[in-house]
Specification:
The complex is a heterodimer of chains A (about 270) and B (about 325). In chain A, about 80% of the residues lie in helices and about 0% in strands. With about 270 residues, chain A is mainly alpha-helical. By secondary structure, chain B is of the alpha/beta class. In chain B, strands 2-1-3-10-4 form a 5-stranded mixed β-sheet, with helices on both faces. A 5-stranded mixed β-sheet of chain B has the order 7-6-8-5-9, sandwiched between helices. Chain B is globular. Classes of the chains: A mainly alpha (about 270), B alpha/beta (about 325). Chains A and B meet through helix 2, helix 6, strand 1 and helix 11 of A and helix 4, helix 5, strand 7 and helix 7 of B.
């Protein structure tokens, strides 16, 4: 009963917060606080709402906004899948081989510091101008923070669990699946959250800097709207980005968290 | 709890009121001292060379002093794109901006609140290819060949569309072949074979022309020559209406800078080469290849083309809607 009350309270305060932010936005826009051209750079909610509908019904240059979203999501999902799988494989190998752990730990520390877009010229020379470049940048965005979390999670597994597993006759690889993975789940879920956010931002940044006309994404759409001074359309696109982010957060990541670490009593 | 929230709200109100109060004080002090500040935004490259001269020789400050006996503080801001400058002027944070003719036309049409107050330069533009079998648009349209250029809707994109249109093709026939990247990245991609073509402007055009394995598609070169406007200066309508003396000094300062560049090109090159990252010899060659003049050429023609091909939604009635009264040209 108490839990239900807490949930209602959480939803209530969030709705109040969102309404407050929207009211402040509308007040600033209506009062034209940014000068006489305020509506051009800081449009009202009504203008953003109309632009939101226009994005989906008209699109840009004959291409529907759905196509931009589909292209971005396709590259994101491929990049995320490769990044997450690679982080598990490489972190798992680090637990099996000490030599590999030392090298991989160094590699993670180095590459986690490098912004993906700074690597763009090198990546273009290696891969050419293809969708794979953006996939690579997404993998780069997700692999290192995810690996750091998984590694930290594996290292935090109490020694007694590992020894218990070994006494039960588990070898190196079955220890990974039977002991390390479940015990490090709270770190892994946290890594997923960080990795998803980094990948999403990395994708949009890459698309804003490097746009392929055959595969136009949401980042390229924002860039086109900025170039054409269609700021209401640009803000409407940011709303779409937020909505997609919230859907992933509350529709995918939170259920994963609820079904694992929360269900197992590892976190509150 | 309620008292705490009330205290917090009061504290915030006091802070806001305080900061507004401080702002008013500062404004009053400024008025008392009669200090005028002119915020100018420009971009990087050879086409902006006269601005380096105006900045280094303080030509705007001198023109204002001679006309009024007072001082003007000119703040030069280097920005990345015409879109950023448009936002800066619309928000009132910038008075003047220098940008490509395409974003300037977009800004006027979108009612950002500025007009063109001077032309700055014209430069050559071209499409280079690394594939000797590409000799005309027919070899690129409906192919998988990719064309690198700086942005969709940029002047390079519009020149490409214009070249297509003038040669009997659909202006957007190559839109699906475009890859957006900055000029240096585009040049590197062309040289490495990552893309087949690169639509660019000076100085990259000269560097690419020197390579034996790169070839020029003449149609693009002829679509918008160096005699046409490429970079223009825009000034906010509020500057023109409320501070005409500063506006006049600005126009005179830029005009003097262009005169200096044209009559003392070697000295100008010595001044600008360091800022543009070129050797003195290269800088001189590049400056001599450009066309620096205050007279616009082809502004309304380009705007009409942009309207016809869907780059802008509306077309103002005449050339005078794009420029202030003192500007000559078409």
């Amino acid at each position: 009963m108490l839990k239900r009350k807490d949930q209602i309270y959480a939803i209530f305060v969030r709705i109040i917060f969102i309404i407050a932010v929207l009211c402040i936005w509308e007040y600033v826009a209506r009062q034209e606080l940014f000068g006489e051209r305020s509506n051009l750079i800081f449009p009202t909610l009504e203008m953003i709402g109309s632009a939101f509908i226009r994005n989906f019904t008209v699109g840009y240059a004959g291409i529907s906004f759905w196509a931009y979203i589909a292209n971005s999501m396709k590259l994101l999902i491929i990049g995320l899948a490769i990044g997450i799988a690679a982080s598990f494989i490489l972190s798992g190998l680090s637990m099996v081989s000490k030599g590999f752990y030392h090298i991989f730990n160094l590699v993670v520390s180095i590459f986690d510091l490098l912004p993906g877009v700074a690597l763009l010229p090198v990546i273009i020379i290696i891969f050419g101008i293809k969708e794979e470049v953006i996939v690579f940048l997404v993998v780069h965005a997700v692999l290192w923070p995810m690996s750091r979390n998984v590694l930290d999670g594996f290292l935090a597994v109490p020694k007694i669990y590992v020894e218990a597993g070994m006494n039960m006759g588990l070898n190196s690889f079955s220890l990974l699946g039977g002991v390390y993975l479940p015990a490090a789940m709270s770190y892994i879920v946290s890594g997923l959250k960080v990795g998803w956010a980094r990948a999403w931002r990395g994708l949009l940044s890459a698309e804003m800097i490097f746009g392929i006309a055959t595969c136009p994404g949401i980042g390229m759409f924002i860039n086109q709207m900025r170039t054409n001074m269609n700021n209401a359309e640009m803000y409407a696109t940011l709303v779409v980005i937020i909505i997609i982010g919230l859907v992933v957060q509350y529709g995918i990541l939170t259920p994963i968290e609820n079904c694992t670490v929360k269900k197992w009593g590892m976190t509150k | 709890m309620k008292k705490r929230i009330l205290a917090l709200v009061m504290a915030m109100t006091m802070m806001i009121t305080g900061s507004i109060g401080c702002g008013t004080d500062k404004q009053e002090t400024k008025t008392a001292e009669e200090t005028v500040t002119l915020n100018i935004a420009y971009q990087y490259g050879l086409a902006y060379a006269p601005l380096i001269i105006a900045k280094e020789q303080q030509l705007i400050e001198t023109a204002y002093k001679e006309a009024t006996g007072k001082d003007v503080t000119v703040v030069w801001n280097q920005m990345n794109s015409g879109a950023d400058i448009n936002t800066g002027i619309a928000s009132g944070n910038l008075d003047v901006g220098f940008m490509g003719i395409a974003p300037a036309i977009t800004g006027v049409v979108k009612n950002v609140g500025y007009k063109i107050f001077t032309n700055l330069s014209g430069q050559e533009h071209c499409m280079m290819t690394n594939d000797s079998s590409i000799t005309s648009f027919d070899d690129v349209i409906n192919s998988e060949n990719q064309i690198a250029l700086v942005n969709v809707g940029s002047i390079q994109h519009i020149i490409l569309a214009k070249a297509l249109h003038e040669n009997g093709y659909d202006a957007h026939a190559l839109d699906s072949n475009l890859v957006v990247m900055k000029h240096p990245d585009g040049m590197a991609a062309l040289e490495s074979g990552s893309v087949s073509c690169h639509v660019t402007s000076s100085p990259y055009i000269y560097m690419e022309r020197e390579k034996d394995n790169l070839y020029e598609i003449e149609e693009v070169t002829n679509a918008w020559t160096k005699d046409n406007s490429f970079i223009v200066g825009v000034a906010s309508e509020s500057l023109y209406e409320n501070n005409k003396e500063v506006y006049d000094a600005l126009s005179e300062g830029i005009s003097d800078a262009i005169d200096y560049l044209n009559s003392n090109t070697e000295e100008a090159a010595a001044l600008t080469c360091e800022f543009n990252g070129n050797s003195l010899e290269d800088e001189l060659t590049y400056l001599q290849a450009g066309n620096y003049t205050i007279e616009t050429n082809g502004v309304y023609e380009l705007a009409a083309f942009m309207k016809e091909t869907g780059f802008i939604e509306e077309l103002p009635a005449s050339y005078s809607d794009f420029v202030f009264e003192n500007v000559t040209g078409d």
